[in-house]
Structure formats: C-alpha cells, structure tokens
Amino acid sequence: MQAKALLETDVQAYLEIADAGLAQRERAQARAAAPLLQVAGVTIEYRTDERRVLATHDVSFDVHRGDRFVMLGPSGCGKSTLLKAIAGFIAPHAGSITLDGTIVTRPGPDRIVVFQEFDQLPPWKTVRENVMFPLLASKQLNRREAGRRADAWLEKVGLSAFAKAYPHTLSGGMKQRVAIARALAMQPAILLMDEPFAALDAMTRRKMHEELEALWQEIRFTLVFVTHSIDEALLVGNRILLLSPHPGRVRAEINSHQFDLHSAGSAAFQSASSRIHNMLFAGGTTQSVGKVVL
C-alpha cells in the first residue's frame, strides 16, 4: 500500500514537471512568434514658439526577431525621427513603441544606434577602447571581459590589426566598422542604423553592404535600417517600409527577401526599384497601398 502511494506520488510529480516544461516551451514559442518591436499609431511632432511641425503621422509596423527592416523615404519624411523614437531619444506625441513587451520610454542598452557621422567615436580612445567603452560604462562586463569581447568583434569586422589605432588615422569605412563592432559587442536586442553608409564612396559602400550581410548571416541580429536610397533598401532589407513625403505616413510595406547583393542590376531588381519609386512619388497621393510582394 505504501509502495503504491509512493509510486502515485512519483507519477504525479513527473506529470507536474512535464506540464511545467511544456508550458515553458509554449511560452518560449509564443515569445519567438510575437513581434520584437511594435510601433503603433506613432505621431511625432516638434513645437516651436511660432508653429507646430508634424514629422510623422499615425505610423504603425512590427519588426520580428532576425528581421532586416528598412525604413525608406525621401528626405524630411521622418524616418530618422522614428529611429530616434525607437532608440528612446524622442517621445511620441501619440501612439506607442514597444520592445519585447515593454513600452520604450528612454534609451537603453537593448537598442544601440550607428549614425551616419564619422565623428561618433571618441577621438581620445583607441579603436579597442572605443569598442570596450559602452560595455564598461553600462557595467555589463569587467575590463578583462570587455577587452576579450572587443577583440572578438574587431576580428569579425577585420580590424584586429588596428586595435591600438586612433579614429583620426582611420578611413570613413573603417570608422563605421568600428561603430558596428562597438554596437554589436553590446549584444543589443535590436541594432538601429541611421543612413550609416550614406557618406561613403560607392566602392566602400558596396563593401560595407557585403560585410553587414556577412555579419547578419553569422549572427542573425535584428536590424532597423534607415535610408533614402531605393537600391540600398533592396540590398539590405528583407522587409521595407515606405514612408510618404513629409509628414511621414506609411505608404506600403514590402517583402523584399528575394533580393541581395548578387541580384543588384538584374531585370527583376530594376523592376522592383521602379515599382517602389512609383509607389513613393507617383501622383503625390498619401494613401497606403498595404503589404506588397515584389
């Protein structure tokens, strides 16, 4: 009788453990399927003593884990402003921005920004020290661990030989590679890039596209990328959000996963580029055309 009771207790404990494991797996699957980033009805405006400037109006989109999500639009459409709001630098006038279930209210190490400007690296720090700096400032790692991670990322971007160099000795492309290494070394939930290659020459820009693609293939980080170049959007993104001229409204969302660096210049690539141009500018309409597969 006692043995039977013990057996029943063991079976019940096993079933409880199995149920807990199943519930945990289901929660993990639900979390993986849910969008990492949700931008819902976001309107951003700037106010001066004289007038109100509407930067974006009622913008909504989702970004999933591992996406290469591009915001594309003409200058002044509010795409960089949206990126700053995702980073927590600007508060929306209306709507909400949610990252992994938490409302974004301020900057945080889960969102790292790579800017267009080459002077985003402190000039008094070496390349290695620049990559280490946010790891130490955020107290994520001690100095030894930060150094090891910095070395690993400098190797990934091909700059190990320049670890002791100072930013003023580097080319523009090399400075951006340091900025990318510094950002990814933080292991953010999402990498934000604001036209990071716009100031580079064509050959260097192509090389940076290749290196960014190689890093994504290796790590599958989540990327939100801002550009006003249609071709760059097709090369970088697997999903593209088209924003209308000022104020920025969602014109369309495009699945563009079929394009990469090898398809640039092909008939299909040129056709897609032309279609996107027409959706952005033809007729001057601001009406959304929804999701589009090129």
What attributes does this structure have?
294 residues; 11 strands; globular; seven-stranded mixed sheet; 41% helix; alpha/beta; four-stranded antiparallel sheet
Q: Short summary of the structure?
A:
The chain is an alpha/beta fold and 294 residues long.
Give an account of the 3D structure.
This protein is of the alpha/beta class and 294 residues long. The protein is 41% helix and 22% strand. The chain is built from eight helices and eleven strands. The chain has helices at residues 2-33, 79-87, 127-137, 143-156, 172-185, 202-219, 230-236, 267-281, and strands at 37-47, 52-63, 68-72, 94-99, 102-103, 111-114, 190-194, 223-227, 239-243, 250-255, 291-293. The strands form two sheets. It has a seven-stranded mixed sheet, sandwiched between helices. A four-stranded antiparallel sheet has the order 2-1-4-5, covered by helices on one side. Helix 8 (267-281) links the parallel strand 10 and strand 11 (291-293). Helix 3 packs across helix 4 and helix 4 (143-156) packs across helix 5 (172-185). It is globular.
Write the layout of secondary structure elements.
Layout: H1 2-33, E1 37-47, E2 52-63, E3 68-72, H2 79-87, E4 94-99, E5 102-103, E6 111-114, H3 127-137, H4 143-156, H5 172-185, E7 190-194, H6 202-219, E8 223-227, H7 230-236, E9 239-243, E10 250-255, H8 267-281, E11 291-293
Parallel strand pairs: 3-8, 3-9, 6-7, 7-8, 10-11
Antiparallel strand pairs: 1-2, 1-4, 4-5, 9-10
Helix pairs in contact: 3-4, 3-5, 4-5
